[in-house]
């Protein structure tokens, strides 16, 4: 298939220019000020005049198949990859979260099997390490050889996904030896357990007490703890879903000492705050995620860190649970916020919300927008320059962006498989009008037109 995208304004982290892009098969074949369409009689011609053309977005933190807190996340690769593409995400990295007793290789096969033949977008995985022993080490080496060049550890979720300090050390030691990145959820699990127990015993059981059970100091301690292990082992780290000033500053102190650690934040932490989780009639449960939504004062700090480059990526931490039947697991009469499945669905809305609240308000420019959503993740997770940029030879993952679109987010018309949308009623500026994933038009006129099974696992090298 040949596609010619004409007159678009191409944006990468360091370039902005108007040009035509010729796609041949799965790759970008040529970029030139003007490509004569009469040479390509069978080509689909797309007029991108007045629109931006971005490299396909990469979401480095997604949960689709997720057995968690006594239930399962609601999306699969059918709804999840369609929602991702509608939001301009052409590659997602899913967290493999095995139970502690699971064999790592079997878990990897299980998660892969959920994506293969079903995903409409490209994908990869962070391999969750929820136990470290000899047999799992052998499996982890095999998984890295298969192109999954990052691990995931949870310092939180005591008794479930969380690892011990010995296991954390061994994971970092192996990562250093293999040159892979350790991604980490940083909250002190013991402190969370103590604080949860205290609050519940005091009758403070509603969703609004989720945040006080995991205050900013608990997250900052987790970051400090993880970074100390990086420092001791020399491993490369990546802190997921950083929610507050205290956590970012804790990581920054280690960066200044030469520790190789990158910081991610997620779209809920940039546009929502803890008052959402305080909504009455248990509606706050829709906004229970970990680390929790914070006091609004942290947002300004996060936006500055996003703009300055201190924060490298904006992901989603898409973790979709229905309100009815799932979030309600912590509802009165057995009211207990610790039973509410953690997570906010957002894989569809990352780019539109970042554009609306970041670019349209002048907090970040278009180059930073592309870096935060695509290029930085491609580099860190070993996909650059096949992905994360627009140049001859790269994968034809492109987002044609309509900056003039105005709309409103609603569960009534979202594609994610949840019965609510955490951004209900949010007004949106701009959206993808056309998306290609390795040369296949997957979104046209902001409607999914791709096909399930088109997506492939991205073979990743070691990050840069
Ligand atoms: O609340 C969250 N973040 N749920 C998904 C699991 C995780 O911690 O990433
Ligand atoms: Zn997490
Ligand atoms: Zn997560």
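Sequence proposed for the structure above (464 residues):
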């Amino acid at each position: 298939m040949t596609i010619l995208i004409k007159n678009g304004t191409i944006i990468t982290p360091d370039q902005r220019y108007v040009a035509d892009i010729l796609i041949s098969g799965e790759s970008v074949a040529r970029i030139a000020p003007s490509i004569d369409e009469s040479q390509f009689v069978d080509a689909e011609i797309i007029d991108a005049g007045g629109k931006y053309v971005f490299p396909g977005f990469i979401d480095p933190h997604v949960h689709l198949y997720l057995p968690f807190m006594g239930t399962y996340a609601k999306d699969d690769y059918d709804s999840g990859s369609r929602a991702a593409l509608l939001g301009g995400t052409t590659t997602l990295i899913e967290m493999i979260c095995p139970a502690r007793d699971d064999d790592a290789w079997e878990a990897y096969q299980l998660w892969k099997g959920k994506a293969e033949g079903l995903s409409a977008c490209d994908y990869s995985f962070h391999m969750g390490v929820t136990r470290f022993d000899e047999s799992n080490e052998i499996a982890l080496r095999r998984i890295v050889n298969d192109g999954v060049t990052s691990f995931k550890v949870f310092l939180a979720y005591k008794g479930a996904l969380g690892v011990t300090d010995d296991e954390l050390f061994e994971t970092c030691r192996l990562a250093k030896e293999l040159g892979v990145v350790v991604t980490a959820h940083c909250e002190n699990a013991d402190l969370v357990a103590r604080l949860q127990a205290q609050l519940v015993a005091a009758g403070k059981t509603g969703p609004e007490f989720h945040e006080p059970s995991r205050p900013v100091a608990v997250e900052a301690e987790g970051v400090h703890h993880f970074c100390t292990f990086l420092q001791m082992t020399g491993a490369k780290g990546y802190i997921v879903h950083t929610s507050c000033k205290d956590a970012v500053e804790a990581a920054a102190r280690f960066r200044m000492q030469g520790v190789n650690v990158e910081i991610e934040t997620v779209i809920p932490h940039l546009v929502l705050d803890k008052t959402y989780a305080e909504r009455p009639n248990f509606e706050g449960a829709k906004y229970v995620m970990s680390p929790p939504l914070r006091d609004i004062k942290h947002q300004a700090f996060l936006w500055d860190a996003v703009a300055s480059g201190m924060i490298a990526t904006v992901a989603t931490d898409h973790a979709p649970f229905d309100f009815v039947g799932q979030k309600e697991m912590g509802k009165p009469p057995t009211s207990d916020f610790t039973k509410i499945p953690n997570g906010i669905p957002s894989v569809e809305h990352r780019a539109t919300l970042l554009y609306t609240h970041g670019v349209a308000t002048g907090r970040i420019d278009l180059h930073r927008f592309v870096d935060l959503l695509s290029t930085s993740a491609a580099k860190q997770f070993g996909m650059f320059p096949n992905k994360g940029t627009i140049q001859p030879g790269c994968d034809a993952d492109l987002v044609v962006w309509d900056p003039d679109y105005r709309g409103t987010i609603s569960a009534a018309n979202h594609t994610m498989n949840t019965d609510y949308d955490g951004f209900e009623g949010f007004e949106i500026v701009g959206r993808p009008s056309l998306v290609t994933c390795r040369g296949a038009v997957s979104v046209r006129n902001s409607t999914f037109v791709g096909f399930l099974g088109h997506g492939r696992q991205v073979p990743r090298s070691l990050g840069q």
